[in-house]
Amino acid sequence: MIALLLYRTVTDHVLPWATAFATRMLARSLNMPEPLVHSTGDYVVARVIAFEYGVGRSLRPFRLARLVRAWWRGLR
Fold first, then answer.
1. For the residues of 13-27, what is the DSSP string, one character each?
2. What is the DSSP string of 33-60?
3. What is the pLDDT of residues 26-47, one digit of tens each?
4. Using CA atoms, how far apart are residues 7 and 1, in angstroms rounded to an integer?
């Protein structure tokens, strides 16, 4: 029960503060306004998700391993 209270305190109070602080420090170091940092972050997340669902699905590790093995056998 104490651990649950501790986790809830951390997630309710400390995590939002740390996120806002990190965003503010990043905006200051890049010399950008904070809303621009937020929108840029959203854009990057959208691009990564689009890549993962588009190209990333065809680049599965087992499929890639099979392709590399077939390519390697063709070289010999």
1. IIHHHHHHHHHHHHH
2. -HHHHHHHHHHHHHHHHHHHHHTTTTT-
3. 889 889 898 888 888 888 888 8
4. 10
